[in-house]
Amino acid sequence: MANKIDITTVDQIAHLARLEFDESSKPGILNDMNRMLEFVDKLNELDTENVQPLIYMTKEANVLRADESQNSITQKEALKNAPKKDSDYFKAPKVLEQK
User: What is the pTM of this model?
Assistant: First the structure.
């Protein structure tokens, strides 16, 4: 393994991440971080010389429709079933209060 993490490093990482750990949880966090480094070291043992970088997880492509603006109903039809309306607008109750 390249580097082992110690309690000082855990404290520094916690400070940078603005995290607070009590003293009883630090050994568990230290163990977890060292296990992560061991896993990465295990991955580094693999021969990736002739492996192309993975850019996309699948070869599938999104099928999207053209984004075209269209009016489906007129303003008059939209206001027809409105419970409260003005000549051209929907009326709605106030949702903001002044303080």
Answer: 0.47
